[in-house]
Design a protein that fits this description.
The complex is a heterodimer of chains A (350) and B (252).
Chain A (H helix, E strand, L loop, with lengths): L3 E7 L4 E9 L5 E10 L1 H5 L6 H23 L8 E7 L3 H18 L3 E5 H13 L6 E6 L4 E6 L6 E6 L5 H11 L7 H8 L26 H16 L6 H26 L4 E5 L6 H14 L2 E3 L3 H4 L3 H13 L21 E2 L1
Parallel strand pairs in A: 1-4, 4-5, 6-9, 9-10
Antiparallel strand pairs in A: 1-2, 2-3, 5-11, 6-7, 7-8
Chain B lengths: L9 H7 L5 E7 L4 E10 L2 E12 L4 H15 L9 E5 L5 H18 L3 E4 L1 H9 L5 E6 L5 E6 L5 E8 L1 H11 L3 E3 L1 H5 L1 H4 L7 E2 L7 H14 L29
Helix pairs in contact in B: 2-3, 4-8
The chains are: A alpha/beta (350), B alpha/beta (252).
Chain lengths: 350, 252
């Protein structure tokens, strides 16, 4: 069998992504194009993603982003073998723009359509940089919308949720704490930069859900955010200057500590020797640093895709699409629905 | 003398020959009607409907539009490759559904290398209504509001589209000198608008039809004009408020 080009379309949140990968006869997946148009700046003054603003931006960006991806890969739509699109989870109105366009591309080209899971895409993104995953591995997805531990036993076969956040996502906690510290949105990068100048042991912020009776693999970041708020307000009341760098470093340490310790614990309990960390927060320097340290101690191989592949993009959707095509999966129907609350176990909507 | 030269792009070639029949795919998702139709358009006669698929379901635009257009084409014995142009309703309409039509039309146009022409949805309804008198077109904007536009006896738009509470529109109606009303919004709010008291006749045209959509764009389609951008007529800004000062978690 010859090479097959798989197109991936992503519009679940505030990034319009179009990616193109080449699926080789041996199952190898090679990245050809990865174009993203972000509406993040339009959301900044609201302190979070405004769904309607994101949906409008997707409609404006879809065709130009597709054009750039095709030009970047040096291919035409007619060369495409299959089209994969994020069908969920995500913002309903945003998902619908990508899925509507994907259906039209599939109909116009007479090519198969695969409605895929955004979270599976995040895990698949790593295969674009580090090659095939082992038969079993643990994946930790950390972003503004998700914080989950997943047992992956074949991307096209079985993804099982091991644990997840019971309240805020890790990235959401970063955004809220950034706001407390008068740092810009999104909060991850500025807190990371500020933390580099602070003492991560300065303040002992709480580690959520780490008590003996708490669910071992679940996360909670809402209490941490409140603890930071209390600490900042106490400073302000006492007329003290808030030591922003120390607060940022100590907050970041609490997040990275809980995430990595629970991931390592799950990997050991499930007897897997590979941990993949993906999602926007995977780009955080302390998270990846601490994960590398603890994985080395535990004899676990750590895989973190480069930041560009960690954040939402179309290439990861093309990648999961390629795995489904390689596994011989039937395409999704053209009356495919978007599923904003799609569970992670459903890799493809059929 | 025109040569059939391999260097002459087909689109340029078509400029030089007398226009024959143009096959138009018409789409609209600005109302609860998920509408797809295949229409023959010629310069000298009214557009002719070959096939259509329409479903009234305000929540199914995303699911149904592409299957509908494929079924309509199949019934007409044509395929997407035969389509010469696409016409799509640009609203105003509820945002989420509205974007389905525009995203679909845009992607089809890009993949098929065919022009996609946006038309205001009420313009299509006005042409469907064939009223021959000054006309109000009102569609349901939800939140107890209507999208509305006014037309003269020839079907040219004289006002709108706007979004407004029916009671506020009612106050303006007498000054607009209308004789007929069309669109689902006019039917739903006929009493609030006081249509009967003003002697305004309620017409059947509730949702845009493929023929109405194609008529609204006929001149541009036949002239193979450069299409306008596929920009939705939102009329409302996104619901979003900038956060106020942060909430305290401890007492001051």
């Amino acid at each position: 069998m010859t090479d097959r080009l798989i197109l991936g379309i992503e519009s679940s949140c505030d990034e319009t992504g179009v990616g193109i990968v080449r699926l080789g006869p041996d199952g190898a997946v090679e990245l050809l194009a990865d174009e993203v148009a972000s509406s993040v700046e339009e959301h900044a003054r609201f302190g979070g993603v405004v769904p309607e603003v994101a949906s409008r931006a997707h409609l404006e960006a879809m065709l130009p982003t597709m054009r750039r991806a095709l030009d970047g890969a040096g291919v035409e739509l007619a060369d495409v073998h299959s089209i994969a699109v994020t069908a969920g989870p995500g913002l309903a109105g945003a998902l619908l723009v990508g899925v509507s366009a994907a259906k039209a591309y599939a109909a116009a080209l007479g090519k198969p359509l695969y409605g895929v899971n955004h979270l599976a895409g995040h895990v698949a993104a790593d295969t674009l940089q580090h090659g095939p995953l082992p038969k079993r591995c643990l994946a930790m997805l950390v972003s503004g919308g998700h914080t989950q531990l997943l047992l992956v036993e074949g991307l096209a076969h079985s993804i099982t949720e091991v644990g997840s956040t019971v309240d805020d996502a890790a990235g959401e906690a970063y955004d809220k704490v950034a706001r407390l510290l008068d740092l810009p949105y999104p909060g991850g990068p500025p807190i990371d930069r500020m933390a580099a100048r602070g003492d991560r042991c300065a303040i002992a912020f709480p580690r959520g859900l780490t008590g003996p009776r708490d669910n071992t693999y679940d996360f909670s970041f809402s209490g941490l955010k409140t603890a930071v708020a209390r600490w900042v307000e106490r400073c302000e009341r006492a007329g003290e200057e808030v030591p922003v760098a120390d607060v940022a470093a100590s907050f970041q340490e609490a997040v990275a500590d809980v995430l990595t310790s629970k991931a390592i614990r799950a990997a050991k309990d499930l007897r897997v020797d590979t941990l993949v960390i993906s999602g926007g927060v995977a780009a955080n320097s302390r998270l990846s640093g601490l994960a590398a340290e603890r994985c080395a101690e535990a004899g676990i191989e750590l895989r973190v895709p480069r930041p560009r592949l960690c954040t939402d993009n179309g290439a990861m959707i093309a990648a999961i699409g390629a795995h489904l095509v390689a596994a011989g999966r039937e395409p999704s129907p053209l009356d495919l629905s978007t599923v904003p609350g799609l569970p992670v176990g459903t890799v493809q909507i059929v | 003398m025109f040569h059939l030269d391999a260097d002459v792009k087909s689109s340029r070639f078509r400029h030089a020959v007398p226009l024959t029949t143009v096959l138009v795919l018409a789409l609209d998702t600005a109302t609860p009607a998920v509408t797809a139709g295949v229409v023959d358009l010629t310069p000298d006669s009214p557009p002719r409907l070959l096939a259509q698929r329409v479903t009234l379901d305000a929540k199914a635009h995303g699911e149904l539009l592409t299957p509908h257009l494929l079924r309509a084409l199949a019934e007409a014995g044509r395929s997407l490759a035969d389509v010469d142009a696409i016409v799509v309703g640009a609203g105003p309409g509820p945002f989420t559904g509205l974007r389905v039509g525009l995203a679909t039309a845009g992607a089809l146009g890009q993949a098929l290398d065919r022009p996609a022409y946006p038309v205001p949805t009420p313009d299509a309804i006005a042409l469907d209504a064939h009223s021959g008198v000054p006309l109000l077109v009102a569609t349901d904007a939800r939140r107890r509001e209507v999208y509305w536009a006014a037309y003269d006896a020839a079907g040219h738009r004289t006002g709108g589209p706007h979004v407004e509470r029916p009671a506020d529109l009612a106050e303006k109606l007498s000054s607009l000198g209308l004789a007929a009303a069309a669109g689902e919004g006019a039917r739903i709010y006929a009493d609030v608008l006081g249509l009967a008291g003003l002697g305004v006749t309620l017409l059947d045209a509730a949702h845009p039809t493929p023929v109405g959509l194609v008529r609204a764009a006929a001149r541009e389609v036949l002239a193979r004009a450069e299409p306008a951008p596929l920009t939705p007529l939102y009329l409302r800004r996104p619901d979003a408020v900038e956060p106020a000062a942060r909430k305290r978690v401890t007492r001051a």
